[in-house]
UniProtKB/TrEMBL annotation:
Keyword hit for Hydrolase: no
Name listed for the protein in its UniProt record: RING-type domain-containing protein
Residue span(s) of domain RING-type: 495-712, 499-540
Pathway it works in: Protein modification; protein ubiquitination
Amino acid sequence: MIRKFVEVFGIPRTEVTDALKGANVFIEEERRELLGAWVDFGSGASVQNVSLFSDFSTASILDRPARSDVAAVSRLISRLGFEIASTTTTRLRGLMCAIIRVEDPGFAQSLYEKFRDPNIEETSGIPRLKAEVHKPLNLNTNKGFTHRANRKKVICSWHKPKQLACLTFGSDSVERLYVPPQATKGDIVSKIPQKLRPAGVKLEGLQDLDNTQGEVDMIEALLVDIGPLEMRLTANADPDSKRVKAMARFQDEADAMTAVRLLNSKPLPFNKNDKLSISRLHSATYKVANHIFSAVLLDFEKTAQTFRSKRVNSKRFPSANGYVTLRLESERGVDLAAAKTHAGRLLEGRLVYDAGGKKPLWSPSFNNKSLANRRLRPIEEQHKVAFQCIPSKAEIYVFGSFDASQRACDALLQSFSDKLSMIHYISLTSESLHWAIRGGFKAICEVLGQEPVSLNFLETPKRLEIIGPRASFDTAIDILAKGRLPQEHDNTTVAEECCPVCWTTAENPLKVNCGHVYCRDCFENFYQSIVGDGEPGIRCLAKEGACNNLFSLQELQDCLSSLPFEELLAAAATSHVKSHPDEFRWCPTPDCQTIYRPILQGPPRIFSCQGCSKTICASCNFDHHGKTCAEHKYFTSGAAADADREFDKVKKKLGIKDCPRCKTSIQKSDGCNHMTCSACKAHICWVCLEAFNDSKPCYDHMNRAHGGIFSGDAL
């Protein structure tokens, strides 16, 4: 049985929900187009499902019998030899059309070929209907500033109904005017100067005709015939406008495209002499931290003013939870794309480089918020900019106008005088980490001061960082060795009062649903850094990780600005793909971030990459047009084998082996023979390269097969 993911058209919302449940369809919390696929995310930004565009095909059956229903279409498809879970039908402006979308890349073409058979009525007893193959939507390959794009809104407009007014003057001449339907004789006369007023006014047609809501309902019915709506059609409230303008949002972007194609310039259902105008409304939404938006406010307003003449509207929503939400909207996608480019340059910031201009500026001292703030805040205030430190990437970004940002970068470089020799590290064991977060860190700060000391959770193992002379480092070591605690120490409250990442009083505090408080920057940096470590979902790490509350997607979205949230989802998707090497492969084109599903059994199939347009054999991962996999391997085996042998020699010399599952190169320097692949998270025996899903069976194997976890080291 082919698993069915349906596109629902023309069914009330309650029926849509029931149909989805009945068809066993996964209703995602959040979906993104990433890596050439639809990726569904659940709580904690965990990947719930990956559906490749190439997994599906969609077909339409046109001119089907008017009385046929879903069951009839299902029977029709079954008689043709196809097995599907369900179908969905609709009526589009009098045309009966069944839309069938199936998780089978060859289904649509096969159905199309079936209906092209001129003998179909004789062989199957089925009328020769018309079938169409739907082309998949193009992949959004925009690589600029990450934000939420929305192309599901439509704008509908039509002329307001008018009535005819006949104005009679003394010479028996008659002037005909079209006036709003609610206009009265008095309204008309009052608008004309006293000396020019007519002798009489006669209204032809209905007066006080105000049926805007009825018109909206009729237009909405046309939209619902195409697909379910997330937001009902709502008209503007401008009484002086000559046209009614209303907006609706579909659940599916494809439905919005179909609505424009089928309904634009069609006669109105309530006035055959006028036509409906319908277009898609493209929008992009950004969420920006308050202090960053303050730095780019003037430039953003200039950008908004520039593009307003191109009918790109901007909206700014009230600040909430430390963030400002911005939205750009336009009926023309090309104009919105240009506006997004300009807005992206402002909102993504500018990476700060060192004096040589080649490497990003960074010092471990920026891991310490107190020291970073002492250096950065005066520069921010002087030059009206905002800095953002990202310890997980060892990068600093500056936000503001170009000239102000340049002056701020120069000032930062001039003040930059840290030397690595003055930064000391103390790696923490599980016991010393427990001591540190239960009061030991505060004890060191009481002696050395808050500024020179920081607790770095982004590194593995976790560590204390001491900035200053060797004597400060020795003092910290002495406090750690003696297990000293603060003079006024309350074991139950020290940890709860601090940010769970840096263990200092939360700066720009962010309170999550479980009640714990983080520094806003710490929250963003830490949870971006741990994506891909193999843990299922993002959880609160308060109480030394004992809280373990799984963050909902909505909570993560509320607590993160646009770019970190989207990067979090992208990193989670990439990690998921790497950890499932048997299910997904990467397009071999350098820098192409598109995946496909390999063909491990059965006949080879060609994969056409939407990211780079390259064609690849999904069986062997090579482009060998006109040759079989075996022929390609034969013709390339000589030179490839020589190169592989030389590469293997180098890897053996360096102590490098390949993961048996995903082929990622792994290097072992010391320790036991249990290795964990950083890409797919497989647990590997270094001696024989057997892979396991968990560490325990790996250790059992090493003890049983190799006599211990340290024996038989191939190095």
